[in-house]
Amino acid sequence: MNDDLAALSARLDRTNELLQRMLAEVAKTPSTHAIFVDAGYLYAAAGRLVSGTEDRRTFDLDTEGLIEALIDKARTIFADSRLLRVYWYDGARRRIHTAEQQAIAELPDVKVRLGNLNANNQQKGVDSLIRSDLESLARHRAISDAALIGGDEDLVSAVEAAQGYGARVHLWGIEAPEGRNQAEPLLWEVDSQRTFDLDFFKPYVSRRASAVYEAAATRPTRDDVRFVGAQIAAKWLAARGREALVDLLPGHPYLPGSVDQDLLVEAEGLLQYSLRGQADLRRALRDGFWEHLQTQY
């Protein structure tokens, strides 16, 4: 009996020793962070802030300098943490790198991930790539903190997925000349948020002197966009009928991804204006869509 107790006591001592060693190793392991950049948002918001336009053809972005500046900023904010890498998400036709994207991919500590680019030069699949990477890295404890540069409401699910595995998500935004360029639901979900101003981006954005470019249409008002949303809702209802409306209403105020994307594409065509990075206008568009449908129910 005494021998059994002694053996049990020895095993417990050994287990405690192993646990103490494991805890000591964990304590010595530095925290790790990564930076996730939605390039579509960055180009649109930084271009509008510095150059007054979202059209990439009209300005140059010193991506190498900007990425280094973002890494330095993260090093300051996450002082006791090491960088895993920068994830750069962009769109490309048939997911084939452009020369610019290839140059970014060759930078140290940078991973380029490409979604598709459709005929209207809109990104497809980028949000799902961000979610996949955020969730996977958080699940495998590869990161403790994520700095997310983006503004679309579709990123909410990516934030929630990472947080579900214990990672903290910090939203970094770009100053908007007017209104907001990040969706409010996204701001509500993140653990912290900060905005970088004109002085931060000015050294990295330069207008192309040789560009022949007609300025985009004047920025529509929220009422203009709301009216377009109502117009599209009327067409949507006429094409699909009241049964489709009954299926849609329980999800208010959110639209299914496919419906929301079709709404955005059609609205940009009618307005002849890009709503990319325009969180307040996209919200007005959805409001107009919903308001018309609800009057028909």
Shape: globular
Tally of DSSP β-strands: 9
Total DSSP helices:
12
User: What structural category do the secondary elements indicate?
Assistant: alpha/beta
Rg, nearest Å: 24 Å
Q: Compute the average pLDDT.
A: 83
Low-pLDDT parts are 210-216
Q: Spatial order of the strands in the main sheet?
A: 5-4-3-1-6-7-8
What kind of sheet is the major sheet? Answer: 7 strands, mixed
The fraction of residues assigned to DSSP E strands is 15-25%
Helix content: 40-55%
The first-to-last residue Cα distance is 79 Å
Q: Give the SSE string.
A: HEHEHEHEEHEHEHEHEHHHH
Describe this entry's structure for a reader.
It is a single chain. With 297 residues, the protein is of the alpha/beta class. 52% of the residues lie in helices and 18% in strands. The chain contains twelve helices and nine strands. It has helices at 2-28, 39-51, 63-77, 99-105, 126-139, 156-164, 184-189, 198-201, 222-240, 242-248, 257-271, 279-295, and strands spanning 31-38, 59-61, 81-92, 110-117, 123-124, 145-149, 168-174, 192-196, 205-207. A seven-stranded mixed sheet has the order 5-4-3-1-6-7-8, with helices on both faces. It has a two-stranded antiparallel ribbon with strand order 2-9. β6 (145-149), α6 (156-164) and β7 form a beta-alpha-beta unit. α5 (126-139) runs parallel beside α6 (156-164) and α11 (257-271) packs across α12. The termini are far apart. Residues 210-216 have low confidence and may be disordered.
